[in-house]
């Protein structure tokens, strides 16, 4: 596999070394290959590592098979993909409830396989949604952009917001949960609040609407622990309706939907904001009494 990447530098003047290392976040091993093979061109010309790169310069990168080993997965059904945003490097799609983001086994078909079929190439998961959750999911189209997007996620520069229909009524407009989350020792499927051994977790909950015995809230994540929203809400007496693990209140689906995803595109510095609704989520809301 040979991968060619061309971008117009959106960053202020710097050196080639600093651009690849601190802006494009290319791993050290890959930077070494690019330098020794002279696979970096600025405006069509070969350069040295301390050459200046100005905003607007055209940067050409070439990666060989040994730089990014080729990965293949089974292709799914492209017709099942509903793209929300797409360019040559990444894609955001609308995941339906009841579909896994990625399979647990190499032969298992999930959203990742369908997205790869849609794009005509193997794609990569940047973040995931629980199988029962619907909404916006971000995928990398190539191994070059994947570590860059992973770093944005780690640095909390990808903002994710969810709607949830929960049990009970919130007394305040905004609530912040900071309870640490760990594994449930008695049920491997579940997570619990664990002040001693849990990982830090931060969820901001904003009340949007109150129903009879239920509340519609917006949840914004600063961390991405497994089942984070579900655990935080249920721990504080506001389990999500239809949650098969943490709630006893039935619904036709888990009432959790990732309605908004926003980030600054690392290769263009464009602000990308994607919003999406869910008909099945809206239908359950319509059936609730205010």
TrEMBL record:
Q: Can you state which reaction this protein catalyses?
A: a uridine in RNA = a pseudouridine in RNA
What organism is this sequence from? Streptococcus thermophilus (strain ATCC BAA-250 / LMG 18311)
Q: Name one Pfam family in it.
A: PseudoU_synth_2
Gene Ontology biological-process entries: enzyme-directed rRNA pseudouridine synthesis
Q: What is its EC number?
A: 5.4.99.-
GO MF annotations in UniProt: catalytic activity, acting on RNA; pseudouridine synthase activity; RNA binding
Record-linked PANTHER family? MITOCHONDRIAL RNA PSEUDOURIDINE SYNTHASE (PTHR21600), RIBOSOMAL LARGE SUBUNIT PSEUDOURIDINE SYNTHASE D (PTHR21600:SF44)
* NCBIfam families the record matches: rluA_subfam
- Family, similarity comment: Belongs to the pseudouridine synthase RluA family.
Keyword terms of this UniProt record: Isomerase
What does the protein in this record do? Answer: Responsible for synthesis of pseudouridine from uracil.
Question: The Pseudouridine synthase RsuA/RluA-like domain covers which part of the protein?
Answer: 89-235
Enzyme kind, highest EC tier: isomerase
Can you name this protein? Pseudouridine synthase
**Catalytic residues, chain numbering:** 130
Q: Check the record and name the PROSITE patterns matching this protein.
A: PSI_RLU (PS01129)
């Amino acid at each position: 596999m040979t991968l060619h990447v061309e971008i117009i530098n959106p960053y202020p003047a710097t050196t080639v070394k600093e651009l690849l290392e601190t802006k494009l976040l290319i791993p050290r091993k890959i930077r070494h290959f690019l330098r020794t093979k002279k696979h970096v061109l600025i405006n069509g010309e070969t350069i040295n590592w301390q050459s200046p790169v100005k905003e607007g310069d055209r940067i050409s990168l070439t990666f060989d098979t040994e730089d990014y080993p080729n990965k293949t997965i089974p292709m799914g059904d492209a017709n099942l993909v509903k793209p929300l945003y797409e360019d040559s490097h990444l894609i955001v799609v609308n995941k339906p409830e009841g579909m896994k983001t990625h399979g647990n086994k190499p032969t298992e078909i999930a959203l990742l396989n369908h997205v790869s079929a849609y794009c005509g190439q193997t794609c990569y998961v940047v973040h995931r949604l629980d199988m029962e959750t619907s909404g916006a999911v971000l995928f990398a189209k190539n191994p070059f952009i994947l570590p860059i997007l992973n770093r944005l996620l780690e640095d909390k520069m990808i903002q994710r917001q969810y709607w949830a229909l929960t049990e009970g009524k919130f007394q305040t407009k905004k609530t912040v949960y900071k309870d640490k989350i760990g594994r449930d020792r008695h049920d491997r499927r579940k997570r619990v609040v664990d002040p001693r051994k849990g990982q830090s977790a931060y969820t901001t909950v904003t009340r949007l609407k109150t129903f009879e015995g239920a509340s519609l809230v917006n949840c914004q994540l600063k961390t991405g622990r497994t089942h984070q929203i579900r655990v935080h809400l249920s721990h504080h007496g506001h389990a999500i309706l239809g949650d098969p693990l943490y709630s006893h209140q039935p619904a036709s689906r888990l009432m959790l939907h990732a309605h908004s995803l926003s980030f600054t595109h690392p290769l263009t510095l464009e602000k990308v904001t994607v919003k999406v609704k869910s008909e099945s989520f809206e239908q359950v809301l319509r059936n609730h009494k205010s």
